[in-house]
Amino acid sequence: MRGFAYDAQGNIKTDGTKNLQYFYNLSNLPSLIRTTAGTSAQGRIVYLWDGTKVMVQDGSGKGRVYRGSFVYNLTSLEVTGVESIVHDEGRIIVTQG
To answer: Of 6, 19, 28, 44, which is most buried with the most CB atoms under 10 A?
Structure first.
């Protein structure tokens, strides 16, 4: 399949150019991205009941965890440290060294 397919709400369901399928939760927010073969998850997004994003994770388990203004690195379901802190003036990015 080449091209795109959308659901009744206008959400993308399939991306034929990248061979991806998109799935949405009850709040109509994207929650899972899979290959069109359905064999492997390419990404997952977790939200609170009010739509606040809590976690973004790729197929290997790496990603980000969001807690208020703090963004943490995630490696295979283990939080490894602060990635950045968001505030009114911008963002502080934590660097090594």
So the answer is: 44
